[in-house]
Amino acid sequence: ETGVTQSPTHLIKTRGQQVTLRCSSQSGHNTVSWYQQALGQGPQFIFQYYREEENGRGNFPPRFSGLQFPNYSSELNVNALELDDSALYLCASSPGGRGQRDTEAFFGQGTRLTVV
Amino acid sequence: GQQLNQSPQSMFIQEGEDVSMNCTSSSIFNTWLWYKQDPGEGPVLLIALYKAGELTSNGRLTAQFGITRKDSFLNISASIPSDVGIYFCAGLDPGTYKYIFGTGTRLKVLA
Asked: Over the stretch A31-78, which tens digit does the pLDDT of each residue have?
């Protein structure tokens, strides 16, 4: 049990629609990262938020956007869904301090998104 | 996207056997993490490594941070059925502070 919770757990959307996924980070963690995991692959970094500001982005198009709120929970928004967006979306929280252990990432259970 | 190379890709072993897997990169990392992922679940952190040459244990698991900082190894001793799952390594890119994940090693334990 990592204390990171994601909702919903499963979602089916139609191509072209928009989706919002949510993540509550572990208590005391101010950094949230989002990853996309396609079937049979390792997680791919989408972006990271630190204290409500984007703090790094992977190779994902602008239709992938996010937010972090004052309580450090976060949202991932995907516009104009494509079939290839079908994947497990994982949220990870980290303490975000300056110590070595502050970069350790703890994952939620993920949201399984299916685009049809 | 960028991924680290893990080997083996998959392995079947007998219960009680020891298991070794490794992860290699063309880039240097400052931190290596090892995760286990069960079907339909998020990855669970097993071991974190912070210094080249470091050897760290967590129960039956032992991991090492390679001297070159471009590789890491995970060993599982005396495997049991619940060790079944996919094991991922992840390296922390020092420039972007994002984790780069390996391709995964799928472990199956035969009772």
From this structure: 999 999 999 899 999 999 988 999 889 999 999 999 999 999 999 999
Interface residue B91 vs chain A (CB under 8 A): no
State the number of CA atoms in the 13 A half-sphere of B13 facing the CB. Answer: 23
- Cα dihedral value A53, A57, A63, A69, nearest 10: -20
Interchain contact B108–A (C-beta under 8 A): no
Please answer yes or no on whether A42 and B97 come within 8 Å at the CB atom: no
Comparing C-alpha atoms, which of B61, B54, B32 is closest to residue A105? B32
Residue A103 sits at the vertex; the CA angle it makes with A67 and A108, to the nearest 5 degrees, is 55
Nearest residue, CB atoms, B101 vs list A2, A43, A108: A43
User: CB distance B98–A48 less than 8 Å?
Assistant: yes
Tell me which amino acid residue B52 is. A
What are the pLDDT tens digits along chain B (111 aa)?
667 999 999 999 999 999 999 999 998 998 999 999 998 899 999 999 999 999 999 999 999 999 999 999 999 999 999 999 999 999 988 777 789 999 999 999 887
